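Honest question from a wet-lab person: if I give you the sequences of every part of a complex, can you actually get the arrangement of the whole thing, not just the pieces? Trying it with mine:
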Amino acid sequence: MVFEVLVMGASSGGHQALSILLAALPAPFPLPMVLVQHRLGEDSDALATSLASRSPHPVLDVEDKYPITPGQVHLAPAGYHLLLGPDGFQLSTAPPVHYSRPSIDVLFESAAHIHGPGVLAVILTGSSADGAEGAAAIVRNGGTLLVQYPASAESSIMPAAALAAVPTALALSLPDLAVHIASLCPDSSSAARPSPLQKELP
Amino acid sequence: MTPTTQTSALEALEIELLLEGIHRHYGLDFRGYAYPSLRRRILNRVSSEKLDTISALTNRVLHDPECMQRLLFGLTVNVTSMFRDTAFYKVFRSKVVPLLRTYPFIRIWHAGCATGEEVYSLAILLTEDALYDRCRIYATDIDEVVIQQAKTGIFPLGAMRDYTANYIRAGGTGSFSSYYSANYDNAVLRSSLKTNLVFSTHNLVSDARFNDFHVILCRNVMIYFDKALQDRVHALFHESLLRLGFLGLGKRESMRFTPHEDRYEAVDAAEKLFRKVA
Ligand SMILES: C[S@@+](CC[C@H](N)C(=O)[O-])C[C@H]1O[C@@H](n2cnc3c(N)ncnc32)[C@H](O)[C@@H]1O
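Yes, you can. This is the full assembly:
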């Protein structure tokens, strides 16, 4: 499988989990990384700055129609949904989904539609059901889902909900997730061959 | 990028036919709207109407104007609030207002104003800066229903707590509660705020320029347009702005990827305030 994009979703506890995961992914990373971390209202660029300071990858809050760039971490800005489309990124101020804007479902569903089997998706810690439907859409369209092992997550609700929606998804602890992602993505340093994670289509 | 499966190729065709039908029958052109959210909103409507396919929605929309209005409501995303992005208002106050003072009469166009919360926010700001008497604000939107609501100047009372906090952070110099009176569940804005407002429908896709402006604000509207349509609307704004006029976009919008970039200088890059220089 040749992946085109790595999408990630996280909620409570996500800041810490993302810092660990991003730091452990090889740089330059061959794919664009797109990230929804649930965040409140109108906050600033603090999250991007903090993640950037702890990872070897450039991190930035996305602006409308920004091109999707390999090696870069694209962060959904506070107060907007982030969608992937043929023109690059699109932002939307449509109502929150699962009380969240940005919402993981919204990002994942748009990614599934446009990149199909080219999507590698990761659901991390969080106390919300956001992301489960989007994860199912990704797998339905031939993409691959990885989940943070619920018992190892600061908050297990979100990874557990994703696993309930996609029981065949592989669940791993953070360090194993990083190793596995690296092995799935071509040109990344680790030599391991992609493991046969292909999901059966319905 | 091409849709990945046959189903999504069919879906793309159905969306195209729906938009074509709406355009030909209702004269509303959504063909240049950004695909990802357009698709999401259409699929939401299909399921809210308890239909199975987009084609079934097309059928209903063409035969039932009320269904068209419901779809329009979803497609256009009317979400807004007073003093959203408080820093924008602060910067407007410190960097734009002093320059506006040099004009005897000021025309402002608020394009895509939705239910008007931003318009009244600006009216409050200009009132406090003793400039409102010299201003006329033209507030427009594609959607007749939201324009009617905006005209009333009545908002849910429950939202006022948040708006008060926003108002303070936006640098308000008075007392926010003096701008409205409570009436059951409603906050009725002071009528003096309405005196220099002109509300009207205007479709940025198809309607022409209608005046020359010192300020144009169009926030969180063009994010729903694709690049080609954005460029067209930017051309409309450029020709509608007086020389050295101001253009304000939404917090996460950019001039960087448009051919109009060089015709403006940034007044405040972070708050997306620009000034026409060419
Ligand atoms: C998300 S609201 C933005 C409201 C406000 N400016 C803000 O930022 O809070 C987008 C508005 O753009 C309007 N709109 C969408 N397409 C339009 C068009 N072609 N012409 C004029 N207004 C349009 C919608 O009806 C909606 O009210």
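Two things worth pointing out. The longest strand of chain A covers residues 5-10. The pocket of S-adenosylmethionine is lined by residues A 93; B 76-80, 84, 112-114, 118, 141-143, 146, 203-205, 219-221, 224, 250 (CB under 6 Å).
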